Each structure stands twice: as structure tokens, then as C-alpha cells.
Amino acid sequence: MGCFRFAINCMRISGIKCGLAGLVLFVFCEAGLCAEDQYIQSFDAAFTAYVSLNYNSIVFSQNDKNSAETYISNRPFDAGFGFAWGNFSLGFNVSIPFLRDTEYSKSKSSDAQLNYHGKKFFFEIQGKDYKGFHDEDSRGSSRRRLSAVGKDGQNVDLEIRSIGIFGQYLWNHEEYSMRAAFDLTERQLKSAGSFLLGADSFYSTIFSPESFLSRYNKKNKLLQFGPNAGYAYTWVYNNNLFLAAAVSLGLNVHKELNGNSYSVGPAFFPRFAVGYHMEDWSFNFMYTATILSIIYNENESGDISTHHVQLTLARRF
């Protein structure tokens, strides 16, 4: 409406030529092209290449009326390479063997993710296969402590496989961009936020044939699905520097496929990023996690949480 008032005032003061110029400006503003009203800028480049340093982990917790145990994977840092074309992005990781905790044996693992970040909605498909965990309470303990080169082989014999999809609709997609903070394919020009509404579904297997986790001596198959909702906000300084956060809570149905248990439990999806945009280059540091509760009965529960930390440098072409 500021542009419209400008046109009217010009017609009163300077005549019809200025008024017509103001009306043209009004049309551009209404089309989202007026700089003062623009929240999101699309980069001209259609292709973006990435290099990154990543750390991925799984934390598994098991609680009953007598004890509470937490087990952690020991995957090395990864060197990442990827690209974005349009709304899709795909990445590949190569482990750096010496960048791990040498107090424990290395977890055998594979980790993959496919992202789609559209203007109005986004989804992420992730797949994880991890074998070999250590007890969180074992650090410094001779019971599970490994040698400096990690050849004792005394990790907990625990294997977790998971595949899932997580998607959300961006309520304020005209002013807020998820791609600007996490995909680096757009620029957020002004601080803005959006409510998020979506759904998620995860299939997981937990197997520990030789450990004292008796429930998992036979492969346990779990299906979890349900709605989620949250809020995202990106704070922008000088059009380039940004700090972003998106936090969502879910309420998932949990079904043990090789058992009879049904339950309903919470899910938590936090993500944070800080970064900087230049004309052809961008970089960010981000953290994302998926935390899924597991409830078997009033005495047995736990959770599977996956964590991803990434430092990314992006170049647009």
C-alpha cells in the first residue's frame, strides 16, 4: 500500500506522469518485486555444488524399572560432496578413518539422505545402518575400555537400521525460506518465521544377538508414524548473515511388528544453522536431529536419536 499512496501523492503534486510511474511501481510491488517488500531472493544459478565436513551418530537408550542404559555409535567424521539441482539435493560421504574416538572400536555404518526443499513444503528421506556401539558409562572403565588402536572388539554387539521420511508444509512460505538456511540455494533478505505442519514415518530394526539386551536377542522390528507441528525462524543481519532455528514436536503411533505392543509417544525434530551468503558462495554450520521414543509398556521404554552436524561450503554455477 506504500507504493499506492506514493502514486496518489505524485498525481496530486506533479501530475499524471509521476502518477503513472508510481502506479507501475505499485504493480511491481504487488508482484513481489519491490525490494522493500521482498523477503526471499532466488539466486540466478540453477546448479549448486557442496563440500562439507560431517559427523553422524546414533544414540540408543533402553530403560526399565531396574536400570537405564545408553549406547553410542563411533562413526568417524565424513568428508562430504553433493549437489543441488532445482529443489532436490543429494550428498555422498566418505569416512575419514583417523577422525574418530580411538578409545572404542569404529562402528560399521552407512548413512544416506535425500532432500527436497520446495517453496511450500519439504521432505527428507534418510537411511541408516549402524553396527557396534559402546556403553556411555564405560569411558575410562576397564570393562569396556578399548586400546588406543581400538582392537579389543569389546563394543556392545548392537545393530540398528532405520529408514524414514519426514515432511512439513511451510505456512508462511511467501516470507520464510527453509532453503536459505539449510540448503543454501536462496537468500533470506529479512528476518521471518513460519509455522510448520507435517507428518513422519520411520521403520527401524534393533538386533543384539549376544548382549545382555535380552529383548533384542531376536531382531525387533518397529514402525512409527504420526503428525508433527512446529515453528521455524531465521534472523538476518545485513541480508547476508543468518541464524536459523526450527523445532517440531510429533505424536507417533508405535507398533512392534513382531510383537503385540501398541503405544503412542512423542517425537522431537530440532534443527539449527548459522551461516553467511555471498554472491556465488555460501557457508553454514548446522545441527539436525531426530529423536523417536519407544514405549513397550509401563516398565520398558527407550528412544532412538540420530544426530547430524555439518560444516558446508557451497558454490553456485
Give a structural overview.
It is a single chain. With 317 residues, the chain is mainly beta. It folds into two domains: 1-37; 40-316, Lipocalin, CATH 2.40.128. Helices cover 10% and strands 57% of the residues. It has helices at 2-13, 16-30, 178-182; strands spanning 40-42, 47-63, 68-73, 78-85, 88-95, 108-117, 121-135, 156-170, 186-188, 192-207, 220-237, 241-256, 262-277, 281-295, 301-316. Strands 2, 3, 4, 5, 6, 7, 8, 10, 11, 12, 13, 14 and 15 form a 13-stranded antiparallel β-sheet that branches. Strands 1-9 form a two-stranded antiparallel ribbon. A hairpin with a 5-residue loop joins strand 14 and strand 15 (301-316). Helix 1 packs antiparallel against helix 2 (16-30). The chain is globular. The model is unreliable at 1-8, 10-34 and 139-153 (pLDDT under 50).
Secondary-structure element string:
HHEEEEEEEEHEEEEEEE
Q: How far is it from the N-terminal to the C-terminal residue, by CA?
A: 37 Å
Low-confidence stretches: 1-8, 10-34, 139-153
- Strand content of the residues, in percent? over 45%
Average pLDDT value?
84
Oligomer: single chain
Question: What is the CATH first-level class name of the largest domain?
Answer: Mainly Beta
What is the helix tally? 3
Looking at the structure, what is the overall shape?
Answer: globular
Instruction: Work out the number of β strands.
Output: 15
CATH-defined topology of the largest domain: Lipocalin
CATH architecture of the largest domain: Beta Barrel
Class from secondary-structure proportions: mainly beta
Largest beta-sheet details:
13 strands, antiparallel
Query: Helix share of residues?
Result: 10-25%
